[in-house]
Amino acid sequence: MLDTYAVAEFDLNAYRKETELSDGTRILLRPMVTTDKHALYEFFKAVPEEESGYLRDDVSSILLCEKWADNLDYNKTLPILAVKEGKIIADATINRRRSGWKWHLGTVRIFVHKDYRNVGLARRMIEELSTIAYKLRLEKLLAEIPDTSTSAINAFTRAGYYRAAVIPNLAKDRDNMPMDIVVMIKDIQPARVDIFEFDF
Q: What's the pLDDT at 151?
């Protein structure tokens, strides 16, 4: 799943991290694997209807979860799961390109189970993505958040992201209603000047 460029710095296949939340809950952070497809579907089934419209994809179908699990490519999309006693309680991803003019940029998304909010899990995972991004030599992380998602914006702000822009009507929810999107960015490390092949 990994190229030699990433492996030289950080072996994602071996990545595991145990941590404790503010309420004492012990969890495991690890990359998603193929056998997680059904657990991921169960996780997304618990998403409240009023929140599902803010997700980029329609996660109500197990076929989508199976597609993600069967086509894992950590070089493009790296899903990091928070797992408690075999149950997925949060899902975070870094999307990146290995070449082109955005090779240094990762786009992040995160969703936390409603029963595990307000215990520091979102912030812990956001910060962990920053650590992983640094080890993968990314320079910036970017998050696109609906402007009504105040708790998410606050979590990213506390984790060191700054508000770079607000783009009116950039996205639409499941009811086809327009949403303003807040673009938040975190600088991970100084820019490097390397020679890469660009594929516009």
A: 87
Find the DSSP H helices in the chain: 4-7, 37-45, 49-52, 62-70, 121-135, 150-158
Question: What is the SS3 assignment for 26?
Answer: strand
From residue 6, give the alpha-carbon distance in Å to each of 22, 118, 133. Answer: 32, 33, 10
Instruction: For residue range 19-78, list pLDDT tens digits in order.
Output: 998 888 899 999 999 999 999 988 888 776 666 656 666 667 788 888 888 989 998 999
Burial class of residue 195 in the structure, from the number of CB atoms within 10 Å of its CB (0-12 exposed, 13-18 middle, 19+ buried): exposed
Taken in order of first residue, the domains within the chain and their CATH numbers are 4-138 (3.40.630.30)
pTM, 2 dp: 0.82
Whole-angstrom Cα distance, residue 89 to residue 75? 24
- Residue 134: what pLDDT? 92
Distance CA 143, CA 100 (A): 20
CA 136 – CA 74 distance, rounded (Å): 11
123 touches 158 (CB < 8 A): yes
**135: its two tokens:** 């080890």
What is the SS3 assignment for 93? Answer: strand
* CA distance linking residue 91 with residue 43, whole number of Å: 9
